[in-house]
Amino acid sequence: MAFPRHVLVSPLNWGLGHATRCIPVIRYFLNQGSKVSLASDGNALQLLKDEFPELEVLELHSSQVTYSSFGFYFYLKLVLQGIGLQKRALMDEDLVEAYVDKHGVDLILSDHRFGAYSKKVRSVILCHQLQFKAGLFSYSSSYFNAKQLNRFAEVWVPDTDTTPSLSGILSLSKQVNVPVKRIGVLSRFKTLELEEKIDYLAVISGPEPLRTQFEEKLIESFIKLTSKTCVIVRGVYNQDVLQNLPPHLSVYNHLKSRELNTLICSARIVICRSGYSSVMDMACLGKTVFFVPTPHQGEQEYLADRLEKQKIAPCSSQKKFKTTDLENLEMYSGFNSEEWPRFPLPAFRQTLEA
């Protein structure tokens, strides 16, 4: 087939990671001369609109869910909301089909958004999680996930094609029977040679109320570190800016990619969730990082535990996190950016034109 002329990029709106990792893919297609349009909802769509204000937008139905703060009920609550999510995905398909017909889209790139699909044009899905770590619900959620992935023409895994991989067993599945292609590690950031003036930079993301709980814990801890320069990026939209903070602590609601890129490269230590998009960012920038997985999210707990066992980065549960843990980072290597080949891998264009 010919190189795509019009690509519809559609990330899931669960946190911001799905949207942020679409940014380098969007840039790639724009640089190749393709037209790109955006399709999503909520904060994910707002983030991409901020980054690419010139692109056309299709607003889809809400893909947000509510979460429980308590173990077993975390997954049970997600399962119970599954029927509503399926209905909204079907409604999204109708919107996407109409958009494809009207605007001549010839490639749909969904980032784990099952409703961003069309029977009329090539539809691929960007996904690193071919199997789920979800406690008692691991098998059933992995089965449902594979069933949805198998509708698409291909699965693009944002990971290296060398060993060891960054995603580990998450990107392996015997239940997925469509072609699975690794396209390289995705990050919207580039390495900047800057003086590390920030001692601790915390980049917060993820579902409520867990995000707010982590934010409150960080602020309480950082306020006491008067000898350190501390920065928190809250990862929120449409909220008041925090006031009456001590001079050694700066807090931002959200930042565009270029501003956040500068902050990360100016930080000696980064504290963040171990969501896969954040892991890819830290790997590509070669940062020293401390991971605090979102409570009860098995994928993040698996990634954080795996990187700690590899002696790349330490981790802690949100409940047990304390700033004294940051004093032991010299025992870990940190990421080496040269070990993680970035998107696009050399064979990627062949994947598009095959």
UniProtKB/TrEMBL annotation:
<dbReference type="InterPro" id="IPR007235">
    <property type="entry name" value="Glyco_trans_28_C"/>
</dbReference>
<protein>
    <submittedName>
        <fullName>Glycosyltransferase</fullName>
    </submittedName>
</protein>
<feature type="domain" description="Glycosyl transferase family 28 C-terminal">
    <location>
        <begin position="259"/>
        <end position="328"/>
    </location>
</feature>
<dbReference type="GO" id="GO:0016758">
    <property type="term" value="F:hexosyltransferase activity"/>
</dbReference>
<dbReference type="Pfam" id="PF04101">
    <property type="entry name" value="Glyco_tran_28_C"/>
</dbReference>
<keyword id="KW-0808">Transferase</keyword>
